[in-house]
User: What shape does this take?
Amino acid sequence: MKPRILVIDDEPAVRDALRQVLEYEGMDVKLAGSGGEGLRWFEEFRPHVVLLDVKMAGLDGLEVLARLKAEDPDATVVMISGHGTIATAVQATQRGAFDFLEKPLDTDRLLVTLRNAMVHASLSGENERLKGAIDTQYPMVGSSEALRVVRELITRVGPTDARVLITGENGTGKELVARAIHESSPRRERSFVEVNCAAIPTELIESELFGHMKGSFTGAVSDRPGKFELADGGTLFLDEIGDMSLSAQAKVLRVLQEGVVTRLGAPKPIVVDVRVLAATNKELEGEIVEGRFREDLFYRLNVVPIHVPALRERLEDVPELITYFVDRLGGRAGIVAKPFAIEAIRRLEKRHWPGNVRELRNAVERLLILSAGRGVSVADVDRHLPAPAPTAIEGPEQERSGALESVKQDTERLYILQKLREYDWNVSETARALGIPRSNLYKKIIKHQLNRGAR
Assistant: This one.
């Protein structure tokens, strides 16, 4: 399915130029010459992203933005303006705009911003658009012990200003955890600004994060605030921080140490008050050893580590997740909500799910669309989903493998508990004795639910 982009701008030349660029990139584009027309198209076209001009006759862009957000709080809107000011950019972001671009539009920056915006819209849609970023203190679906630990950590760290490093595989819900932390913090009324470090080219990442001054590099046609400035007073979420360049890492470290940012080409720094949350699917300790990640930045970010478990580590949540997705997918674009047979659910519980919750969501949608009956049967699962990966074992062999894994986990738990007691619960000394990074020991303490009263 093509990405749907709605362009709202009262300049015909700008609309035509944007249509040519976006259609060349394979996008489905609708054009509106006024705010009122754009609002009508929004209801009918249901775009993934809206490109919205700030200065227009009649309804201006900020008013249109407010109405779009009133109609759909999860609308992804990128503001564009030939009269951009920092105040306008901050105001637009605080009203819910995803980003802010100045005219004349740089094609590379436009496409990067749209790519990030569509990733944001896609992730939001896969989780019921996060129901307005989050509808409860605990957005993750499931009742497993692994999720209970994550929720408890969110409850404890949310009201503080502590930095959090969220780790886990792709598709596990790291962004959900970040938003839950923000929503349970005193900063929840201010901006939550997300940056996907892996999606921004190396040559643009510093400009995106710290902003730039007009003329500071080729293509810098006006002053532009960075994400740190836009998140002032709120939360900045650095997703996939393990992919950030070393030069950008050094500047992020300075912001964390001194609370100031300096735009590219600016003569003096700007003071910012930002809570930084970071996420990665990489083992940063290994990246440090290989020289790809700064150790000092790691310790600045890793004040409180939260590891989001893979779906295969909480398969007991699969039935609840299926119910959740059926409820939210039913009725969308002709999708009919259907019950899943017990045998079908059991078959899905035995899969490996390398794509985690995101893969399960897609599988539920596929089965709802392709199954011919009034419900989803085990035959539908076998017919419409690829065969499980070899690591997904069934029958007696699975039982033997599970029993062996249980023994291994019990042994590991008792050994770590013994070492913690030996070193009087000094985590640094215990990690050194075990020969593992301190962050890994923290993960194992959380995983095994260890405390001083544990047995």
Observations:
- The two ends are 54 Å apart (CA to CA).
- The longest strand covers residues 275-280.
- DSSP finds 19 helices and 14 strands in the chain.
- Residues 106 and 413 are 55 Å apart (CA to CA).
